[in-house]
Amino acid sequence: MATTHDRKRWSSWRTANFCFFEEHLSKLPTEKTLIDIGAGPEQFRELTWRFKKTSVDFKQFGTTDVVADLEKEIPLPADSADIVYMSNVLEHLPYAEITLSETHSILKRGGLLIGAVPFLAAVHQAPYDYKRYTIFGLKRILAEAGFTDIEITPIGRPTQLYRNMQDVMFRYLPRTITMWMYQKIERLSHNIFSILLRNQPISADFCQGYGFRAIK
Question: Which branch of life, at top level (predicted)?
Fold first, then answer.
């Protein structure tokens, strides 16, 4: 499990994800069955371990229970899960609609799909980062998979978003700028925008990403 010390090294996006999932998963009974699709190394397993959990991914990460192609039939019984959990998975799937259809099949009627995707974020895990969903695209792909009661929550404050964008932009500064100058410019820029954006609310069109919930 992650420790407090570990969390100090988390990115703002990872922290925002954790807070979203903690808020919603902590309210659910522990006897629920949970399927972690695209589980990877299960970075948030401290939130999922208390459920009757099965982790699924395309390869073995050491704690993976089921290894399967996520864009084909997932070898789990239909109508068997109370919760399907997908943390930062959809953007890595070229044909995510297939995975969502499989997810819908695995869930019991009334079951919960919960997940998160990045929006204004740099490319990561290249070359397997394929998409960025708007709130409209996310609603549509979930509805087309058969889900109802879709709720999408913008996550990641504007100040955090700006800091991430700043880090990316500063990678492309001319090499003639010394590290000392770079640090001065970065600190000044960060301080200015932190003041300008500190009271700016999270909005659907200016956020790091989205948390989503939907019902079968």
Answer: Bacteria
